[in-house]
């Protein structure tokens, strides 16, 4: 019993992190965060990749037209599906692949804005822009699927995993802040300009991040992409009601494509929410006979 106690699985910590008492939660945090530097290092990988993605997206937007950036950046949706297949050993049907690319086109149309002439001439490097967008797309797919694999490959609590991820993210972003604007931060303070509205936006972003991790935990990254697309459509509809935003033909067509793609992807299919090392022969035979 002694050796088994020293190598006990974190399964018991799930209850502590999600449904247990505060004392058990604190114990779980000490064991999984402070007492597990390897696990913390493991979750620093997606933090670094996400930081690289954000910076590459900024470089791409600085060197590409807004319309070109808008279209090419949506390739992160099929890239996520490809990473899901390669990294998690899952399979998607032809209809699912079709719905993924349809979602990509729908999101592009929903967010499409006609190019506007401007007198400001900005020197751009298209090759640098396309290279940066390619790196950003690959980072988006890899980081999301990597985090999903970490979540589903152990019994560690979802909330503990979030804390591990965001601790790494805080370190990475603080480093970036002090490298880029260290003098201003030291002069005016880190929280200079933080109003109640800013804090409220931070709160909403935090809740959104927690919600995203729940979606990834209990579905997958592809479904996260579909839910994000639906959120874009709903937020635009809300803007129409609240701010009188004018609906365009491209938005209507894009929203229709998003809705159809969600319906097609949700049709009865093979379960893709669990990591399966390999398919059984019976499942293959079942797919052939469909």
TrEMBL record:
Localization, UniProt: Golgi apparatus membrane
Membrane topology category: Multi-pass membrane protein
Pfam families (alphabetical): Nuc_sug_transp
Membrane-spanning ranges: 95-112, 127-147, 159-179, 191-214, 226-245, 251-267
Keywords in alphabetical order: Membrane, Sugar transport, Transmembrane, Transmembrane helix, Transport
NCBIfam families attached to this UniProt entry: nst
Annotated family: Belongs to the nucleotide-sugar transporter family. SLC35A subfamily.
PANTHER family: NUCLEOTIDE-SUGAR TRANSMEMBRANE TRANSPORTER
Name assigned to this protein: CMP-sialic acid transporter isoform X3
Biological source species: Apteryx mantelli
């Amino acid at each position: 019993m002694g050796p088994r106690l020293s190598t006990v699985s974190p399964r018991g910590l799930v209850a502590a992190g999600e449904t247990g008492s505060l004392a058990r939660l604190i114990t779980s945090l000490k064991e999984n965060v402070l007492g597990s530097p390897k696990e913390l290092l493991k979750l620093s990988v997606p933090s670094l990749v996400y930081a690289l993605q954000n910076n590459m997206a900024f470089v791409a937007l600085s060197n590409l037209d807004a319309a070109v950036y808008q279209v090419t950046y949506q390739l992160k949706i099929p890239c996520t599906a490809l990473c899901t297949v390669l990294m998690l050993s899952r399979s998607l049907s032809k209809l699912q692949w079709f719905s993924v690319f349809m979602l990509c086109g729908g999101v592009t149309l929903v967010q499409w804005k006609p190019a506007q002439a401007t007198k400001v001439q900005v020197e751009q490097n298209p090759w640098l822009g396309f290279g940066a967008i390619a790196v950003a797309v690959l980072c988006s797919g890899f980081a999301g699927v990597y985090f999903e694999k970490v979540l589903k490959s152990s019994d560690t609590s979802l909330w503990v995993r979030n804390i591990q991820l965001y601790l790494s993210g805080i370190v990475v972003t603080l480093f970036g802040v002090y490298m880029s604007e260290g003098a201003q931060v030291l002069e005016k303070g880190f929280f200079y300009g933080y109003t109640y509205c800013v804090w409220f936006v931070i709160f909403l972003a935090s809740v959104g991040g927690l919600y995203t991790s729940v979606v990834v935990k209990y579905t997958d990254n592809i479904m996260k992409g579909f839910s994000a697309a639906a959120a874009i459509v709903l937020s635009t509809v809300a803007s129409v009601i609240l701010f009188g935003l004018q609906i365009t033909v491209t938005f209507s067509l894009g929203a229709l494509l998003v809705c159809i793609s969600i319906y097609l992807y949700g049709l009865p299919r093979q379960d893709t929410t669990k990591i399966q090392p390999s398919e059984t022969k019976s499942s293959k035979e079942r797919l052939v006979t469909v």
